[in-house]
Design brief:
Layout (H helix, E strand, L loop, with lengths): L8 E8 L2 E13 L4 E5 L15 H4 L10 E5 L5 E8 L4 E10 L3 E3 L2 E4 L1 E9 L4 E4 L1 H10 L4 H20 L33
Parallel strand pairs: 1-8
Antiparallel strand pairs: 1-2, 2-3, 3-4, 4-5, 5-6, 6-9, 7-8, 9-10
Length: about 200
């Protein structure tokens, strides 16, 4: 399967228990053997297929992306992505959000993953904190993950925390100054977004 070109629209799907759980169109920023970077454009509408486990964003009424958008950096094999956030009229960089998730799997239309709820925030000034541990443990109790999956996620969390403690982050800090192409329109879900089969 080949790489996507900058500006391409791809579908980022979350797959839970063998079924699509959420679908989000994204713009490709960079794609290659070492990094897949995509941007969630402000105003992007999310898709929620019918599923037996209700997506927490859907439960909260989150239908589209707000704010300045977010840049997502994915390394092959990593069980987390690195997401960048900006705020204010001057688009001030806020920090790096390490989103624990399944390692991404390429599809003909984009890539599949699954958010693990447990996250880590690295502020622009270098301070970091763990986030959403309670939400993750609640999802474990509800059966979103089996015991082996839950243990693997906890191990990834410890690895991420150790990396942050050591100041050994791998990504280029120059991404903090990245800006999206102003000519990029908001991508939309294709009419057949519910029908793409799992690879």
């Amino acid at each position: 399967m080949g790489y996507f070109a900058p500006g391409d629209v791809v579908l980022r799907r979350e797959v839970l228990h063998g079924r699509p759980w959420s679908v989000m169109p994204a713009r490709v920023v960079r794609d290659g053997p070492e990094l897949l970077a995509v941007f969630i454009v402000p105003g992007t509408v999310f898709g929620y297929p019918d599923h037996h486990y209700r997506h927490p964003w859907l439960a909260k009424g989150n239908t589209h992306w707000r704010g300045h958008g977010k840049l997502q950096l994915h390394r092959p094999g990593d069980a987390y992505s690195v997401e960048l956030f900006w705020a204010g009229d001057d688009r001030r960089f806020q920090g790096w959000y390490l989103n624990l998730q399944d390692p991404f799997r390429r599809t003909p239309h984009g890539f599949d993953t699954l958010d693990h709820a447990l996250d880590y925030w690295l502020d622009a000034d270098g301070r970091w904190e763990e986030r959403d541990r309670d939400e993750f443990e609640e999802q474990v109790a509800e059966g979103k993950y089996d015991a082996a999956q839950a243990d693997a996620i906890r191990r990834t969390g410890k690895e991420v925390a150790a990396m942050l403690d050591a100041g050994a982050t791998w990504w280029d800090p120059a991404w903090a100054a990245w800006t999206p192409d102003p000519d990029w329109p908001v991508p939309v879900l294709p009419a057949d977004w519910r029908d793409h089969p799992l690879p």
